[in-house]
Design brief:
The chain is of the alpha+beta class. It is built from twelve helices and eleven strands. Helices cover 39% and strands 15% of the residues.
């Protein structure tokens, strides 16, 4: 008996009966004389996904076969779904062999139905992790962000918007623990040239998940920052275990009221997460590079606070005794310059009469 056949559920019974691959589940017959169909992995608006074994390749490796859902009554909807499916194949091929994106193995049409074969990633989704083990700590959530933001950098540099980032579409690989971003069926290639507006008329219906998609995506104008918003909502789910629709929302801005659900979050990380979750595109991070940069600033916060201290330095250190070859990060150098300026300002203020001081401060504020 095929061990995978025991996992088949009644929920998918209609798919088993109505699709060719479903009828092959658990049998010894091979699809296209190559693939042994083991079980259904999932179903969605664009198709049905099956786990299969490649009987041709050495080692009979496991793979994933996605079939375009055949039950579409409207011919226009069918054509639109077919185009999305082809777009997914082209996108996966374009993105190449990134270790955190499933590799495209094959793509073909059989009797008017479309199939896409991908690398199988053995592991659990982040959604399942939260259901099993509960919410994550701030450190763990930051680690997830630092691992996924470079993936967004990569796909955005290839002019691709994922449009459906959520915990269910992020798998932690059992082999090495890496996070893999799946389900590029919702992708939209970005064809806007430099200097052109991002607000062109959309030619597709809404694609995404309620709560994870920002307002511009509902307006059919997704941008790279749309993926950043969805990643921010995903991070919020990791911290609280709550889906976005379970939160209250600000009646004026529409933003998620999340702050009271994670009261122990550090001030810096709360600011970063808050900016990722801004409804306004003007206030939200525009690129993954901006988020990575702001997350990286946290390492300098302690030294920056020390440099900006208003307490006098201990002892009288001569300039000749100060080390001149010690490297200081740019942030620390800037903070030192601010501190020195404040010291000189206080010295000047202490030596000026009150009437002259007022005039001097007025002229100084004008120059600033």
């Amino acid at each position: 008996m095929n061990p995978f056949s025991m996992n088949l559920s009644n929920f998918h019974s209609d798919i088993l009966q109505q699709t060719h691959l479903g009828q092959l589940c658990g049998s010894q017959d091979l699809f296209r004389e190559r693939y042994e169909i083991l079980r259904i992995l999932g179903r969605g608006g664009f198709g049905v996904t099956f786990l299969a074994r490649d009987a041709v390749l050495p080692g009979n490796q496991l793979c994933v076969i996605k079939q375009l859902c055949p039950k579409v009554n409207n011919p226009r909807s069918w054509e639109r779904s077919r185009q999305r499916f082809e777009k997914e194949a082209m996108t996966l091929s374009q993105l190449g062999s990134h270790s955190q994106i499933p590799r495209l193995l094959d793509y073909f049409e059989v009797n008017g139905e479309f199939y896409l074969v991908q690398e199988y990633v053995r592991g659990s989704t982040l959604a399942r992790e939260i259901r099993r083990h509960g919410p994550k700590t701030e450190a763990a959530a930051k680690h997830v962000l630092r691992e996924l933001l470079p993936v967004l950098q990569y796909i955005h540099s290839n002019r691709v918007i994922h449009r459906d980032i959520k915990p269910q579409n992020i798998i932690r690989c059992d082999d090495d623990g890496r996070l893999v971003l799946i389900d590029f069926g919702a992708v939209k290639e970005q064809f806007v040239q430099p200097g052109e507006t991002m607000h062109k008329s959309a030619t597709t219906n809404f694609v995404g998940t309620m709560g994870f998609a920002p307002p511009e995506q509902f307006s059919l104008r997704p941008v790279y920052a749309s993926d950043i918003y969805a990643l921010g909502v995903t991070c919020l789910y990791l911290l609280t275990g709550k889906a976005p629709l379970e939160f209250d929302h600000n009646s004026n801005t529409g933003e998620i009221c999340w702050q009271n659900h994670v009261p122990n979050l550090s001030e810096h990380f709360a600011k970063v997460l808050g900016r990722m979750l801004k409804m306004s595109l003007e206030e939200r991070f525009k690129t993954s590079d901006e988020v990575i940069r702001d997350l990286g600033l946290e390492a300098y916060l302690v030294s920056l606070t020390t440099c900006l201290s208003s307490q006098p330095l201990r002892g009288n250190v001569k300039k000749s005794e100060e080390p001149t070859d010690k490297y200081l990060p740019p942030v620390a150098r800037t903070a030192g310059a601010i501190r020195e300026w404040r010291t000189k300002l206080k010295q000047k203020q202490s030596h000026l009469p009150n009437n002259k001081l007022k005039g001097w401060l007025l002229s100084s504020s004008t120059m600033i």
